Amino acid sequence: xxxxxxxxILFLSIAAVLLLLSGCMYPADDKAVRENPYEDQIEAxxxxxxAYKENTGGLLPIxxxxxxxxxxxxxxxxxxxIVPAYTEKIPSNAYENGGIYQYVLMDVEEKPTVKLxxxxxxERIRDLNLRRxxxxxxxxKEPVGENVYEIDFEAMGFKEPLKVESxxxxxxxxxxxxxxxxxxxxxxxxxNRILQEEKPNVKxxxxxxxxxxxxxxxxxxxxxxxxxxxxxxxxxxxxx
Length: 240
Fold this sequence. Notes:
This protein has 5 helices and 9 strands. It has 240 residues and is of the alpha+beta class. It folds into 3 domains: 35 residues; 80 residues, no CATH class; 106 residues, no CATH class. Strands 3, 4, 5, 6 and 7 form a 5-stranded antiparallel sheet that branches. Strands 1-2 form a two-stranded antiparallel ribbon. It has a two-stranded antiparallel ribbon with strand order 8-9. The longest helix has 34 residues. The protein is globular.
């Protein structure tokens, strides 16, 4: 009888441990589902966009944004126009489904292409905007480009500078402030790596941000235009 009782206790203990472990595993799995830019999901939405365009005489399933909206976030996809008529469901990593990505269209005039915007970047920018006018002034420090400045994070009440995880490398990217008072992610680290390693054919005066997203589904949103100098280094373009 004691042996049976011991076995029962042992069985229940193992079951409890397994249940606990499974509870720990699911959140991690769920996190991965919502944070990975899955190629098959992007392809499914691309097919849906193409079909919608063909069936509506050239219209696109996008939300309306103001004309001056940044190009990289200007054409968000309106899923209600393509789900479920053209695709079964909203991607698990889409913002509308609890994910971290905004699905958008680029090159809408020539070849509408589905791309992603990492909304964790937008969250960082929002944190800074909430404290933009702390102490009654904008947080400018030393210039890092023409009309682009380092941020005085200490004056804004932060213990250390805020940074953003790069979608293109393991780098942590700085955030800068423009003369217009808006905050932007600085992609110089990633652009410099591409220029040095891949040596693409670019020229002064050309916005080179396309180098980041040509072979990557994620766009360099919330950024300023970059070009190259005479040393083929990335520099901020004058923001007019």
